[in-house]
Write a structure and sequence with these properties.
alpha+beta; Fic-like fold; 2 domains; six-stranded antiparallel β-sheet; 15% strand
Length: 439
């Protein structure tokens, strides 16, 4: 840990010797941080906007119409960008100390306006919960871990005193180095989880408030590194807070490296940045990405082996408790509505009766639950079948849901974890409704 902190301070010192960074390079640097911070912090929480869409949205603002994404996702991305601006203003006011009201304002800014979300009632039944931005939670927001255990955040009556303690700690803690204090500020806030939604994004905003206030660049937790990020948080939960501090310090190295390049006048573009610029240019010219990504069998199989394979696993996990009622469960894949009853496996080979030149236009995920048992152990229902159609249109793949809903994505867009859960819950609800009607 000490070696990492010395490395960070050494790089920061080198950057300070190269300052001031030219106006042009400073602008490019900030635009990169702004894009990465907005995109990744929201994407970690399930926002489905692509980085290209995010860049276009930040560039064009309300004039840019994002397709196939909810209004709330678009508003939250723009709201998060406004929250970053608010952080900058707080930092510029040297005499102003961070307050609980500031933190509540950050939450209100990123969530924009009240909305309803799915939740579980105290009795364990599905319900709807109203989220009020900027207000402390009115109900517990504990979470169930994959192990089945309940991880408890602060109780409702504990939130206000714990938030007061957090602010007092932040204002008066002078013995810690900047990296440790920023990481601890993040972690202590998350353990309270004071709001009904937006806690992760606010924790990262607060962490970067401290970094930027002390002359460091903002830390960007990349969404593709979410697994390691959550693991570091879990280690802190187990008492190993140094593991989380170390993780944050390692992410800071990326930000310092980009800043160093900008200070030297070097190119700060990374792999993929040129693609982002191309996508933005296409938006300016009115050329849609979908015009360049057409359906093909190669793309279809790539989709099947990636997003749809993960979707099948998500559905299987959602049906775990229902499966306990049946003798057996099988999840199969059909191509163009027919095939060899392929199970979701690593090969996912085409069915033998698919002609070599036949274009794939549909996948079917078929769920077969066999023999619902009665109290006496005898079959009460022979089979329960459920099919999920994935229609492969020319430029998009479409997954119909109940109540005339659907999820539509371009071929270069993967299903998000949030979307997979929506589909899986839709399947689960449909199967339960069918069983209840039958019995």
């Amino acid at each position: 840990m000490k070696k990492l902190l010395l490395q960070i301070e050494d790089i920061k010192s080198q950057i300070e010797k190269l300052e001031p960074i030219s106006t042009e390079n400073q602008k490019k640097l900030w635009e990169k941080f702004r894009l990465e911070w907005n995109y990744n912090s929201n994407h970690i929480e399930g926002n489905t906007l692509t980085i290209a869409q995010t860049k276009a949205l930040l560039h064009f603002g309300d004039d840019y119409k994002v397709e196939n994404n909810s209004v709330r996702e678009v508003n939250e991305m723009l709201g998060h960008d406004l929250a970053i601006v608010h952080i900058q203003k707080l930092i510029e006011d040297k005499k102003r100390a961070l307050s609980i009201n500031d933190i509540c304002e950050l939450n209100q800014t990123i969530l924009v306006k009240p909305f309803y979300t799915d939740a579980i009632s105290h009795s364990g039944l599905p319900t709807r919960k109203r989220i009020v931005p900027g207000k402390f939670k009115s109900e517990p927001n504990h979470v169930r871990l994959p192990s089945g255990d309940i991880f408890k955040y602060a109780e409702v009556h504990e939130v206000e005193p714990k938030m007061n303690d957090l602010i007092n700690w932040y204002r008066n803690e002078d013995d810690l180095d900047a990296i440790s204090k920023a990481a601890l500020f993040h972690y202590k806030f998350v353990r309270i989880h004071p709001f009904d939604d937006g806690n992760g994004r606010v924790s990262r905003l607060l962490m970067n408030y401290h970094f930027m206030k002390n002359g460091y660049p903002p830390v960007v937790i990349k969404s593709e590194d979410k697994k390691n990020y959550l693991y570091a948080l879990q280690q802190a939960d187990l008492g190993n807070i140094d593991e989380f501090v170390k993780y944050i310090g390692q992410q800071l190295l990326w930000s310092l490296d980009i800043t160093m390049k900008a200070a030297k006048g070097e190119d700060i573009e990374e792999d993929g940045d040129l693609d982002k610029r191309t996508d933005l240019l296409k938006k300016k010219l009115g050329i849609a990405n979908s015009e360049l990504t057409k359906r093909s069998n190669k793309i279809a199989y790539k989709l099947l082996k990636s997003s749809l394979k993960e979707l099948a696993q998500t559905i299987k996990l959602q049906l775990t408790r229902i499966s306990e009622l049946f003798e057996s469960t099988k999840l199969s894949t059909y191509i163009n509505g027919y095939g060899d009853d392929n199970k979701m496996g690593p090969a996912l080979l085409p069915p033998k009766n698919l002609k070599p030149d036949e274009e794939i236009i549909k996948f079917i995920l078929a769920i077969d639950l066999k023999s619902l048992l009665s109290k006496k152990g005898k079959p009460k229902i022979g089979h329960v079948h459920k099919k999920i159609a994935i229609n492969l249109d020319l430029y998009n793949y479409v997954i119909p849901l109940s109540k005339n809903r659907k999820i539509e994505k371009k071929y270069d867009e993967s299903l998000s974890i949030h979307e997979m859960n929506i589909i899986a819950e839709d399947v689960k609800r449909s199967i339960l409704n069918g069983i209840e009607q039958h019995i």
